[in-house]
Amino acid sequence: MTDAFYITAAELADRGFDNTPDELMSHRHMIYSSPATLDFNSPGAKGFGVKRAGLAIPGSVMLLVAPGCCGRNTALLNELGYNERFFYLLLDDTDIVTGRHLTKIPKACKEVCDSLDYTPTAVMICITCVDALLGTDMERVCRKCEDETGVPTVPAYMYALTREKRLPPMAGVRKSVYSLLEPQKRISSECNIMGYFSHVHDDCELYDLLHSAGIKKVRELARCETIEQYHELSRANFNLVINPEARYAAQDLEKRLGIPFIELTRMYRIDKIHNQYRLLGRHWVLCSTTASTAARRSGQWRTSTENSVRCVLRWANV
Amino acid sequence: MIKLAIYGKGGIGKSTCTANLAAAFASLGKRVIQIGCDPKADSTINLLGGTPVTPVMDYMRDRDEEPTSIEEISQVGYGGILCIETGGPTPGLGCAGRGIITTFSLLEELELFEKFKPDVVLYDVLGDVVCGGFAAPIREGYADKVLIVTSGEKMALYAANNINKAVKNFEDRSYAKVRGIIMNRRAVENEEEKVRAFAESAGLDIAADIPRSADIIKYEDMGKTVIEGDPECETAQRFMELAKKLIAEDEAND
Ligand SMILES: Nc1ncnc2c1ncn2[C@@H]1O[C@H](COP(=O)(O)OP(=O)(O)OP(=O)(O)O)[C@@H](O)[C@H]1O
Ligand code: SF4
Ligand SMILES: [Mg+2]
Q: Which is nearest to A132 in space by CA: A68, A74, A66?
């Protein structure tokens, strides 16, 4: 079965359950799902939203500034072991209309820091949709918090209304979590992978390819366990962006710290993936032996991936 | 770069002063951007021969998508001045302050400053600093100086005082400071004394003294500033003096 198939809900209902078309019977054959569905991550799956992502800096805490009804959905994250790192400043109508909440934020920050028996590495102030209309200069509020606590303070915006805009919240929060990085001497054999809030699979071929191309140290935010490791991210010679949502953050790092970036597109066809690695290899200004090692390795990866796919197809009896 | 925001009571002559000042800078060879931050979107009309530019908010509302280039939301007017209007919501609906913020972040994404490389940017802002949106032009990265337009009328001075206090309220290292007052005369009795008394009590300088002028109205009817219409007239000369003064200050700062 290779032809595309579709049916409207009305047609399906008219046919009745017993006449469900064969194409929709999942146990009779494999159902192809487009790359779009592979990319989709349902919020119900407890993936990384702005709030969880905002805690990517090791040792940081978050102050969520929101009306109670809006802030409470974050409570779900507590199940994932974040309850020690979330703090809430709840707003009411008067706060918002008068802007009073803005003077409360530095006080709340101070209270949070005082209540902890350690000094957090950073405080993320996450403000939700309600503030979007008010035009608050959160950078300024954060400076006031820093004056109050001495702890670096960074804004993150959970503005659900900008989801379909050029700079959606998930792109903005990536910039926030990298924003504490400072310039330092860059090392030519080190790079970062930017894109996700969990690290790339340990057995991902990307590590192997990078190493064979002469990269000695590959860093990822999600692998940083201490703030010292976090700060090492700015030693990178370049950033490899594997998710377009990290592009804005990578651009910011290029502008602020002079770290250039290369973006890889997520693809699902083996020959395209292979081609992309080849193109990437060409971009590296490396001695020919390491570049050709990388090229050979990418060829090997291709063969082994093709073999796995063939196995899956055989197993699925297609 | 000279970055100025012009505030003042409604109808006091902010747009007139901004457009004339922009034209004066342009006639001195500067690359100028004027951004009208007012739902009426009439700030730049006299730089454009009376034909208004499509405001950014109108563009977004009508097409339901963001513009992808600066050209789509700007017009080049007198002296090469790049004219932009934020516009605003349908009167009585929506949020005008949010409109300003949305426009500013859009202009930033379109890399307006990097691409146009202006010497001077002028923000003509509606009335008072009423909410966060109307304070956006004095934030870091936008205007670094504020000019307050006032006449000797009581309510204009009252508004000027409020604006001065509002800007002071934000005073810290990265926000704009009040540079001074543009006295835009309304032929009120003892006008100069009244404005001077206010300026002194607020510790502000009177940066320019603009006469009540029939020329302004005459050229406005033709969609022009006096700088374009009659550069030799007294009023035009006052704007030229102000522009030169601000350029000299900026150069001294560098
Ligand atoms: N010095 C002046 N002499 C004569 N007429 C003037 C002078 N200044 C302003 N005007 C006139 O006053 C009217 C209002 O001016 P303008 O639109 O510049 O005010 P505004 O402060 O921008 O108003 P708004 O708050 O509505 O934006 C205009 O018709 C303008 O021609
Ligand atoms: S959409 Fe915005 S206001 Fe609503 S719950 Fe989410 S963050 Fe809060
Ligand atoms: Mg006006």
A: A66
Ligand 2 interacting residues, C-beta cut-off 6 A? A 66, 70, 73, 128-130, 158, 160
A203 with A272, same domain?
yes
**What's the domain count of chain A?**
2
Q: Which residues of B are catalytic?
A: 9, 14, 40, 128
Start-to-end CA distance of chain B, whole Å, equals 9
Domain that holds residue A134: 44-165
Q: Could you tell me if B66 lies within 8 Å of chain A, comparing CB atoms?
A: yes
CATH number at residue A108: 3.40.50.1980
ipTM value for the complex: 0.71
Name the CATH architecture for the domain at B2-253. Answer: 3-Layer(aba) Sandwich (3.40)
Higher pLDDT, A156 or B174: A156
Residues A12-39 have pLDDT tens digits of: 999 998 898 888 887 777 665 555 554 5
Q: Could you tell me where the DSSP H helices lie in chain A?
A: 9-15, 35-39, 50-53, 68-71, 93-98, 101-115, 138-149, 169-178, 205-212, 227-231, 247-257, 270-283, 288-315
| Residue A249 covered by a domain | yes
Residue A81 lies in a domain: yes
Domain boundaries, chain B: 2-253
- CA B13 to ligand 3 center in whole angstroms: 7
Encode pLDDT of A188-227 as tens digits: 999 999 999 999 999 888 898 889 888 999 999 999 999 9
**A165 interfaces chain B, CB cutoff of 8 Å:** yes
Instruction: State whether A135 and B66 contact (CB < 8 Å).
Output: no
Same domain? For A161 and A198 the reply is no
Please state, in angstroms and rounded to a whole number, the distance separating the CA atoms of residues B125 and B136: 10
A91 is a domain residue = yes
Across the beta sheet with A123-128, the strand order is A86-91, A61-67, A123-128, A153-158
3-state secondary structure of A64: strand
- pLDDT above 90: percentage of residues in chain A: 46
